[in-house]
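Here is one chain, start to finish.
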Amino acid sequence: MAMTKSNCFKVGMGVVIAALTGIQKAAAQAPTLSVEPSRLPRLGTIDERFQSYNVEMLEVTGGNFWKPYRASVSAPSTRSAAGTGNIPGGRNPDLYEYRAPIDLMNLRLRTLAAALAPAYVRVSGTWANTTYLAENDETPSAPPSGFSAVLGRERWKDVIDFAHAVDARIVTSMAISPGVRDAAGLWQSDQARRFIAYTRSAGGRIAAAEFMNEPTLAAMGGAPKGYNAAAYGRDFKAFHAFIKASEPDLIVLGPGSVGETTASQSSMQYGSEAIRTRDMLAASGSGIDAFSYHHYGATSQRCSGMPGQTTPEAALSEEWLARTDQTRAFYQTLRDEFEPGKPMWVTETADAACGGNPWASTFLDTFRYLDQLGRLAKAGVQVVAHNTLAASDYGLLEEQTLRPRPNYWAALLWRRLMGTTVLDAGAHNGTHLYAHCRRGVPGAVTLLAINTDRTTATILRLPVTSERYTLSADHPQSAGMKLNGTALELGQNDDLPHFVAVRSQPGSLEIAPATITFLTIGDAGNMACD
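Its structure:
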């Protein structure tokens, strides 16, 4: 049948009308949030070093750490002869790859870390439990009996210099392996005393310390055979007495547990040798200054034989993101019972244990990264230390080039825009909305809107002008990220890019599917932010 001009016009108009109808339906289906920034109530405050990071003790000494996914897990690992002893107990050596000590003098590393200041740098991890501090400037070629690694004094001096250069206060933990114990198996403070004294003599200071890293997994972490809650309680009391007598200003953190969201979760994931936090706290008694724990929502694909795996398809789901709250609620209940009123710190966290999943280095994990900060700040957690700054797949920086990954850019925006006063943005189904007073601008408010829906936009209504910073990517698992449509990259001389906002007039703003938006409202007039 031949088409007349009239028929063509009717068909064309039909397409236009159908398209407009589709847009109207989509707009009608999009959830709409209305926020009055001037009226958002104050919830509380967080530490100025709330957003912090880990540099593994293993990175400082050099040794075997999680093999990146770019290397085949089935292929034999590259391991140094000196480092073969520092594989955690029961682990497959082929999951690891040797790293030379991190260069903490590297200018790019220092520039990027300093941009996140002020922060805490936690130098700990599984390997810290079994690391020996050299007695003098001559570093032994192999660790003494009862240890698995050696920390040369010059390496620790690099940590101290790095911390000064990037405005990061040092957090750590003590060695607890057989090498620091007497004939009866009791923990001795000699090594800890030398560690703290050398730090002070080199111009540094340990701001906070856990007795050990992840005591719930003591057997995996190098504790003596048969180590249990009673042994932890006895050792913690000795550690606490030593610290309070010699370093009373040092913040005692503890217990630093991991792997529990129910009373039986730790043993389910890590076997019968796992120790319950409740039992440890009952044995150790009170004495911590802040309650610390670790959170990983899953174990990575790298550790495929362990339960608790997840998928990239689940990365934006409420079930996945809510695991942050589940873990926090579990440990908060124990805090309330054994150490009521003590502040809570998350001293280690990332998307997944065992070095992170393959998508930990992509935009897809940025939703978890920022949502986790928002949730924990809202719940009153004081410090959150991401693992790691620049090692394995969950590092904020790519470990070979030290180039920023999407989570680094997100961290930098948080640092620049989100202040220490937390506001209540209310509960909104389908969109995660957080609010803080804007950093450094009296009366101003910053909103963080995270749209985890992959297909539907969210409409946000504001009665005032705002400045918009939207994070997006060409693909959820992209290694790059865009700010307001422009790729984020370092400049020629490692200069950080200028974050240019888009001005939005009062009224409705669309938060596109699978995007993250910071909105700053300079004239919010919120009295909690004065």
